[in-house]
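For the sake of clarity, the format in which proteins appear in this thesis is described at this point. The record quoted next illustrates the convention:

___
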Amino acid sequence: MTNPQDLETIGLTPFSYHANQPLFRINRGVPIIQALHHASDLLHIAKLLASDAAMIRDSDRHAWASHFLQDMSKAIIDDVAKVLDAPCNNGT
């Protein structure tokens, strides 16, 4: 198995769709450790915004911000999972 510290994102995962077209995608070549740290930071902020949205009236902007941050986080994690699941990285 390849050392996880040597693995990088492959840049195949799109997110934020408009009319069935992705507006963005994960960039290729980012070390997966850094990508996962970034996803963790995005999810932390999304959690805080979702908590605010649950407690404050008229806070749909918090809910939408949380939604988009979660979408970005999921794309990062999905791209990393594609790298880790690649046959060349799992010893099969």
